[in-house]
Amino acid sequence: MRSCTEEILQTVCGELGLKRFRAAQLFHWVQQKAVRSWDEIANVGKGDLKLISSRLSFHPPELLKERRSVDGTRKYLFRLHDGEMIECVLMDYAREQSRDRHTVCVSTQVGCAVGCAFCATGMEGFRRNLTSGEIVGQVLDITYFIRREDPDFQVTNIVFMGMGEPLLNYEEVLGAIKLMNQEKGLNIGMRRMTISTSGVVPQILQLAQENPQVGLAVSLHAANDRARSDLVPMNRRYSLAQLMEACREYSRITRRRVTFEVALTDDNANQTEAEDFVRLLKGQLGHVNLIPVNPVTGTGMKRPDLEKLKTFARVLEAGGISVSVREERGTDIEAACGQLRRQWREGNHEPISSI
Ligand code: SF4
């Protein structure tokens, strides 16, 4: 049900002999009001709902756990209808001048096949792709639960940075983007959504051609092939030279700059590495986002201290590279992707909300 565009609903309603306006009503209830059951749909008769439910299934996931950080970040663990578990995160940014920003970080796959060295999700392997309805569903369910406390709550931004490699589930991710962009649905602007990729070159080029105006972030993490292949195994399939060429092509076609994510550990936050990034990114239309690594059990990686981070950023700036340090969110609640799911599987079943 949550994967359905209004056009699909019109077709289904037509085939069931129902009035066309039923499709608009259903789309509104599901995609804007974020209802989680047929019973909550108020202005469609029981008979019509019964007919529709014979054709379309509605399986909202079960909320297993919600954790709240001292900084307001909330992390959710959901169990899908087939028993698989996914995580998503809500980050709130209060603004003085403009409206508050509520960003949801969504998962696009159950698990991930890429296997990045610093990632809890990657350590557990790939299970399956999510459908567009399951991707949108994360935003709808967060909206549903928050509206019980704040009836006007509205998600404003989406980042595809949760579990999974979005560009290896390209069609469903694009389907979710189009659904969330619908004015009669969540109405989230294309420019307020960002896809983050480990560097799947053919799909970066496909995205450039389709140019849906969403943002593109590339998890770079190292400036030479040897180091990057160790951290981000996708680099063994598409080298840095191929990736940078695809990013240049992306910027040429879309006229948009690419965000380059660089995770810094106590080991790689040094002058030599910073200079390597300057050489790699010189002349590229882009912006570097420095991310101090989240402590994940089993990776052996240590977070760099603030002084090392600042020095690293200064070298990039001096080399003419636009750079910022990502604001840390939710480190006290294991907000990095895959950590909550892993804890749950290891038997840590705390109550749903632990503040
Ligand atoms: S960082 Fe992203 S691409 Fe890499 S293993 Fe984790 S989920 Fe997959």
From TrEMBL:
<keyword id="KW-0479">Metal-binding</keyword>
<keyword id="KW-0819">tRNA processing</keyword>
<keyword id="KW-0698">rRNA processing</keyword>
<dbReference type="InterPro" id="IPR006638">
    <property type="entry name" value="Elp3/MiaA/NifB-like_rSAM"/>
</dbReference>
<comment type="function">
    <text>Specifically methylates position 2 of adenine 2503 in 23S rRNA and position 2 of adenine 37 in tRNAs.</text>
</comment>
<dbReference type="InterPro" id="IPR007197">
    <property type="entry name" value="rSAM"/>
</dbReference>
<feature type="binding site">
    <location>
        <position position="112"/>
    </location>
    <ligand>
        <name>[4Fe-4S] cluster</name>
    </ligand>
</feature>
<dbReference type="GO" id="GO:0002935">
    <property type="term" value="F:tRNA (adenine(37)-C2)-methyltransferase activity"/>
</dbReference>
<dbReference type="InterPro" id="IPR048641">
    <property type="entry name" value="RlmN_N"/>
</dbReference>
<keyword id="KW-0004">4Fe-4S</keyword>
<dbReference type="GO" id="GO:0030488">
    <property type="term" value="P:tRNA methylation"/>
</dbReference>
<dbReference type="InterPro" id="IPR013785">
    <property type="entry name" value="Aldolase_TIM"/>
</dbReference>
<dbReference type="GO" id="GO:0000049">
    <property type="term" value="F:tRNA binding"/>
</dbReference>
<keyword id="KW-1015">Disulfide bond</keyword>
<feature type="binding site">
    <location>
        <position position="119"/>
    </location>
    <ligand>
        <name>[4Fe-4S] cluster</name>
    </ligand>
</feature>
<feature type="binding site">
    <location>
        <begin position="219"/>
        <end position="221"/>
    </location>
    <ligand>
        <name>S-adenosyl-L-methionine</name>
    </ligand>
</feature>
<dbReference type="InterPro" id="IPR040072">
    <property type="entry name" value="Methyltransferase_A"/>
</dbReference>
<feature type="binding site">
    <location>
        <position position="294"/>
    </location>
    <ligand>
        <name>S-adenosyl-L-methionine</name>
    </ligand>
</feature>
<feature type="active site" description="S-methylcysteine intermediate">
    <location>
        <position position="337"/>
    </location>
</feature>
<dbReference type="GO" id="GO:0051539">
    <property type="term" value="F:4 iron, 4 sulfur cluster binding"/>
</dbReference>
<keyword id="KW-0949">S-adenosyl-L-methionine</keyword>
<dbReference type="GO" id="GO:0070040">
    <property type="term" value="F:rRNA (adenine(2503)-C2-)-methyltransferase activity"/>
</dbReference>
<dbReference type="InterPro" id="IPR058240">
    <property type="entry name" value="rSAM_sf"/>
</dbReference>
<feature type="binding site">
    <location>
        <position position="116"/>
    </location>
    <ligand>
        <name>[4Fe-4S] cluster</name>
    </ligand>
</feature>
<dbReference type="InterPro" id="IPR004383">
    <property type="entry name" value="rRNA_lsu_MTrfase_RlmN/Cfr"/>
</dbReference>
<protein>
    <recommendedName>
        <fullName>Probable dual-specificity RNA methyltransferase RlmN</fullName>
        <ecNumber>2.1.1.192</ecNumber>
    </recommendedName>
</protein>
<feature type="domain" description="Radical SAM core">
    <location>
        <begin position="98"/>
        <end position="332"/>
    </location>
</feature>
<feature type="binding site">
    <location>
        <begin position="164"/>
        <end position="165"/>
    </location>
    <ligand>
        <name>S-adenosyl-L-methionine</name>
    </ligand>
</feature>
<dbReference type="GO" id="GO:0019843">
    <property type="term" value="F:rRNA binding"/>
</dbReference>
<keyword id="KW-0963">Cytoplasm</keyword>
<keyword id="KW-0489">Methyltransferase</keyword>
<dbReference type="GO" id="GO:0005737">
    <property type="term" value="C:cytoplasm"/>
</dbReference>
<dbReference type="Pfam" id="PF21016">
    <property type="entry name" value="RlmN_N"/>
</dbReference>
<feature type="binding site">
    <location>
        <position position="196"/>
    </location>
    <ligand>
        <name>S-adenosyl-L-methionine</name>
    </ligand>
</feature>
<keyword id="KW-0808">Transferase</keyword>
<feature type="active site" description="Proton acceptor">
    <location>
        <position position="87"/>
    </location>
</feature>
<keyword id="KW-0408">Iron</keyword>
<keyword id="KW-0411">Iron-sulfur</keyword>
<dbReference type="Pfam" id="PF04055">
    <property type="entry name" value="Radical_SAM"/>
</dbReference>
<dbReference type="GO" id="GO:0070475">
    <property type="term" value="P:rRNA base methylation"/>
</dbReference>
<dbReference type="GO" id="GO:0046872">
    <property type="term" value="F:metal ion binding"/>
</dbReference>
<dbReference type="InterPro" id="IPR027492">
    <property type="entry name" value="RNA_MTrfase_RlmN"/>
</dbReference>
